[in-house]
Write a structure and sequence with these properties.
By secondary structure, this protein is an alpha+beta fold. The protein is built from 22 helices and 49 strands. Helix 7 crosses helix 14 (about 420-435), helix 13 (about 390-415) runs antiparallel to helix 14 (about 420-435) and helix 14 packs antiparallel against helix 15 (about 450-475). The chain is globular, with a radius of gyration of 30 Å. The two termini are about 55 Å apart. The structure holds zinc ion.
């Protein structure tokens, strides 16, 4: 056996070498620049599918997957986990894991290990000697150590935004690619712990060129049914718009990601080792092997092929890898020894990709799926829908940080002169955002101290990147003529370009302390935008002029009293200065000069004060009109020619409290949303309101009670309204945890149907009390109907449509026809017993945490209307809401308005061709030396608008004409593999008839079976009698090897044609753009 294998390897090596030499000669001058990874390709590569241990055709092949699940922060911070400190909290030290696994792998070529989290791996990598690094490269090249997933962290799928998911994969995969080349490239998605799974994630994996995905957590009812009908492995269609290109083979693991009961051999576990001393009184070989083989057989009943995957590991396992491996060695040896006596079970060290390869080679067909895996329930009373909202301020801070990361990337890419610290600053920010996507970070399911650590990382990252933006903006603003007069380069900055992170509570030291300051609005979108800007000020009379010296119309409003009263707000701003900034250049900025006026003027208070609301109060513009009843609640809306009763109110659920000893006693907590008997409370019968009407904006300031207030506003010419809510401190003096929602009620006859977005992209249809693929038995009628809302929730009927766009992820639902609700904040007093061990009780200065945020509210005709459809408007506003202008403030004490206007460049446009509004420049960032990574995205779905949903053609070179472009090449979505060289494993879907039969089988047999725990396997079914023998169809089908050959691309075509690209609805195209080097 071994000899044959070696010979084959040698032959492959030889062929491979020829190929490499040939290509090298052919390209010579091109290799370094053009091939993403050729320079790192090792001639000994025998990784991935080529490195799999052979399976046996007529046996049940048990793929043992040694693995560790290393949370990038949870009970401990990222660094505490890495270094292994705070062992009193959790015995977990990632550095020891990688050390000891590498040791074990080096000693024995049979062993396999997978590693997932690039954030940890590269922390470890940079501490290693070159000798260790070389031996790790060998392990990777031989497929003994394999990267799976490979993103910076294993991201959550409910509360994350696709922009950040793509970013963190791109970064993790790039680091792997830069370090290990092709063999470092993961082929398999490994989302074993996230709490439910989004369809968009499947689509993203497919577009990144992944061959498959394995995951752990799905609704227990769904899992039962899928196992019973052998539908736990399937072809998942990730996009309704992209069709086949978004298909991803996906498998639900049998036992989450744990080892079978009794077989965790880790030092963290208490299970017995395999004791094989011949005469030892404790010898347990027979019993242990029997149990394990039974388990494998049982598992195989629920899957289609004669292969099963068994995860051998868990949270932070393998800190002493030899302990686990020694027992696995014995397990494999003793189990396989039985084959001579007729056992037909074969145990092998394997990886998820080797398992997938075996499935592929089985040549059978697979079921398909088109919806998603939300919400996730682990038992009848544990719906994991609380984390959709948990830690609302951390969730918002993450959105702000992403916003600034994009700005920082763009400005760093456009910098006329790049400083050496740009890249490390940017990288710190990229990696911080990568960590934030982790399934215990943005989800809000970490301990409080860890949440603080995440927040701190983001503020450090913002400060670092602010160094870049300050430098670049100074370079762009200070005209080169002025700087060339001075002999020294302007290393000291003229302008501050300061960031005010607390603008959301109207606080900004620079605008408060200076009577003259400039506000630079940087627009990260690739089209012109208009934006209503709000500036914290201490006075009510200011003059604002734009870069042309034109005086802007302004309106000044008092800061809402609830904001003024916030204990921890240390700001002198009593007013907000508001003006419309228009024609903000794409990927550019416009600067405004703002000066306090010193002559006396009267400040006008509210036009309607609390006691005067004897009739309907109205705020309106030409598009939308909101009416408030005499109690101060929103009561009707007119828009688009439709008038309807629409109300909005705040309510709260009481968080269930229990001892968690059994399902029925589950508490509501960081993960779980479980309202106590679905009890809901109104927060007020009467709302105090103040009304402000001006030329620019009309506002109703509502006060519901001591801890809930809101500003409802309608800006001139906007077709939607803004609801800016302020919640907290949520009182707990009654010992009741509270989960606060906002609810919009309308007359729309939605018949139980509503729509929520998937990670900010495509909308998914939801039906109240229903799931698409199984008969739901719902024991939690509120929380079981909650879905993640990252950017949008809507409902409609034949005439009207209502949509709400939040500014961070929130849980949402439609519990009555016509009603939409979003959970805005939660404060709980009990732990839900899923590990975090703390109640979600966020406080600040000894009081409950206050959260503030915005909902954009759209209402109008659902069907055809003249002009742009409401859906398309929502998409465009959603984008402008995600990436509004970034505000930079500079002190202008040294320059009067005229000096400022004539001496500096106060307007800048970074791209020359403006993109149509349906196209988003999703990414523009410095990549490798003299390279840009660029992504264009069509933001509409099919059929959302007659015009905007059309395919669009653009010329990339024209768009990016401010750069000297030499060449461009398309990659997979992650930016790390050439698109035209990427092939994915293809899987064949079941025929219609098979689909029908498999469902028919289920309805007869599986009604009462619950596999809540793998410890209670469903016994009594015979060993895989109907499994197909493998290798028949698959033997010759090695479609998997990525071709090494690189086609020579365009040297002399040189015309614009190659830069023309077309985008169809929801398509994202990714390019590496090569810049000219002087
Ligand atoms: Zn985890």
């Amino acid at each position: 056996m071994a000899h044959t294998k070696e010979k084959t390897t040698m032959l492959c090596k030889t062929i491979y070498w020829f190929a490499v030499l040939y290509i090298f000669a052919y390209f010579l001058h091109d290799v370094e620049m053009r091939n993403i990874n050729a320079a790192y390709e090792s001639p000994a590569s025998q990784c991935g599918y080529l490195s799999c241990h052979p399976t046996k055709q007529n046996m049940l092949n048990v793929h043992l997957i040694p693995h560790t699940h290393d949370d990038v922060g949870w009970l401990k911070t990222v660094d505490q986990y890495y270094y292994g400190s705070k062992t009193n909290i959790q015995k977990a030290g990632v550095q020891y894991i990688i050390d000891s696994v590498v040791d074990a792998l080096v000693k024995d070529p049979e062993k396999r290990f997978i590693y997932v989290e690039s954030a940890f791996f590269f922390k470890w990598w940079k501490e290693q000697t070159s000798t260790v690094q070389e031996s790790v490269k060998t392990l990777v090249n031989e497929g003994r150590l394999e990267f799976i997933g490979g993103a910076w962290s294993m991201n959550d799928e409910a509360t994350t935004h696709y922009q950040s998911i793509i970013d963190q994969f791109s970064w993790g995969l790039r680091r792997l690619n830069d370090t290990f080349g092709e063999c470092g490239r993961p082929r398999i998605g490994w989302q074993i712990d996230p709490f439910g799974h989004s369809r968009e994630m499947a689509s993203i994996f497919a577009q990144m060129g992944f061959d498959g995905l394995f995951f752990g957590r799905l609704d227990y009812q769904d899992k039962d049914e899928r196992l019973m009908t052998k539908n736990a492995e399937m072809i998942w269609r990730g996009s309704a718009n992209l069709a086949k290109a978004s298909d991803l083979f996906s498998g639900a693991l049998y036992n989450n990601y744990q080892a079978p009961d009794g077989f965790c051999f880790d030092i963290l576990c208490n299970d017995d080792p395999i004791i094989d001393g011949k005469h030892s009184p404790d010898n347990n070989v027979k019993e242990r092997v029997d149990t394990f083989l039974d388990y494998a057989k049982t598992q195989s009943k629920y899957y289609r092929t004669n292969n099963v995957i068994i995860t051998m590991g868990g949270d932070f396992t393998y800190q002493a890898a030899q302990v686990y491996y020694k027992n696995l060695d014995k397990l494999i040896r003793y189990a396989n020894a039985r084959q001579v006596n007729g056992s037909n079970i074969n145990l092998i060290y394997s990886t998820p990709s080797c398992y997938l390869k075996s499935l592929h080679e089985s040549g059978i067909t697979w079921p398909t799926k088109t919806d998603d895996f939300f919400p996730y329930a682990s038992d009848p009373h544990a719906y994991w829908t609380g984390y959709f909202t948990s830690r609302p301020t951390l969730k918002r801070f993450e959105r702000d940080s992403n916003h600034f990361l994009q700005v920082c990337k763009q400005l760093s890419a456009m910098a006329p002169k790049k400083s050496v610290e740009f890249e490390p600053h940017l990288t710190f920010m990229r990696e911080t955002l990568g960590i934030m996507q982790h399934h215990d970070a943005i989800t809000g399911t970490e301990k409080q101290k860890v949440a603080f650590d995440y927040a701190k990382r983001m503020s450090v990252g913002i400060r670092a990147c602010a160094g870049n933006t300050r430098s670049v903006l100074n370079q762009l603003s200070v005209k080169s003529e002025t700087s060339s007069n001075t002999s020294e380069p302007r290393s000291d900055y003229i302008f501050d370009f300061k960031i005010c992170p607390l603008l959301n509570i109207t606080s900004c030291p620079l605008s408060e302390l200076n009577e003259r300051f400039a506000l630079t609005l940087y627009n990260p979108l690739a089209h012109f935008t208009d934006e209503y800007v709000r500036v914290p000020v201490t006075h009510y009379d200011y003059k604002v002029i734009d870069n042309n010296g034109v005086t802007m119309d302004i309106q000044v409003l008092p800061v809402p009293s609830a904001v003024m009263k916030m204990k921890n707000r240390s700001s002198n701003a009593q007013y907000e200065l508001i003006f419309l900034a228009s024609n903000l250049p794409p990927l550019g900025y416009r600067t405004y000069y703002i000066e306090k006026q010193n002559y006396f003027k009267e400040f006008f208070g509210p036009s309607v004060s609390p006691k005067k609301t004897s009739s309907l109060t109205v705020i309106e513009n030409e598009h939308i009109k909101l009416g408030f009843d005499t109690n101060g609640f929103l009561s009707e809306v007119t828009a688009d020619g439709i008038t309807q009763f629409v109300s909005q109110e705040f309510l709260y659920y009481e968080g269930a409290k229990g001892n968690n000893a059994e399902f029925l006693n589950r508490s509501s907590g960081a993960y779980i949303f479980r309202p106590n008997q679905n009890k809901i409370h109104f927060v007020a019968n009467q709302v105090d309101i103040e009304v402000y009407r001006g030329e620019i904006v009309q506002e109703v300031h509502q006060k519901f009670n001591d801890w809930i207030s809101q500003v409802v506003r309608v800006y001139r010419s906007r077709s939607y309204a803004e609801f800016e809510w302020l919640i907290g401190p949520i009182p707990i003096d009654d010992d009741v945890g509270k989960e606060v929602i906002t609810r919009f009620n309308s007359g729309i006859e939605s018949t139980g149907i509503f729509y929520t977005d998937s990670n900010g992209r495509e909308m998914i249809k939801r039906r109240r009390n229903r799931r698409d693929t199984w008969n739901l038995k719902l024991n939690e009628e509120v929380s079981g109907n909650y879905y993640p809302v990252t950017t949008k929730i809507t409902l409609e009927d034949g005439t009207a449509r209502m949509a709400i766009l939040p500014d961070r992820a929130q849980g949402g639902s439609s519990l009555q026809d016509g009603a939409l609700e979003l959970m805005v904040h939660r404060r709980l007093l009990h732990d839900d017993a899923f590990g975090v061990g703390e109640a979600l009780n966020e406080t600040e200065h000894g009081e409950g945490l206050i959260a503030r945020g915005k909902h954009l509210f759209f209402f109008g005709q659902s069907g055809n209307r003249s002009g742009i459809s409401l859906k398309a408007t929502e998409r465009i506003v959603q984008l402008e809401n995600l990436l509004p202008t970034w505000k930079f403030f500079s002190n202008m004490t040294s320059y009067n308005a005229e000096e400022w206007r004539t001496s500096f460049k106060n307007i800048f446009q970074g791209i020359s061709m403006v993109l149509p509004k349906s196209v988003h420049l999703l990414t523009l960032e410095p990549w490798h030396l003299n390279q840009l990574l660029v992504r264009f995205e069509h933001i509409m779905e099919k059929g959302e608008d007659v015009n905007y949903s059309r395919s669009v053609q653009i010329n990339v070179k024209n768009v990016l004409s401010t750069f000297e472009i030499d060449d461009m090449r398309e990659t997979t979505l992650d930016g790390n593999a050439w698109l035209n060289e990427t092939e994915r494993l293809q899987f064949v879907p079941d025929s219609e008839e098979e689909v029908y039969n498999s469902y028919a089988t289920f309805s007869k047999s599986a009604k009462a079976i619950h596999l809540l725990s793998a410890a209670k396997p469903f016994l009594g079914v015979k060993f895989s009698d109907e499994a197909l023998s493998s290798g028949q169809l698959g033997a010759e089908s090695n479609r998997i090897k990525r071709t090494v050959h690189t086609e020579r691309f365009n040297l002399h075509t040189g015309d614009n044609q190659k830069y023309m690209i077309e985008l169809s609805p929801m398509e994202i195209r990714t390019f590496v753009v090569y810049l000219s080097v002087y």
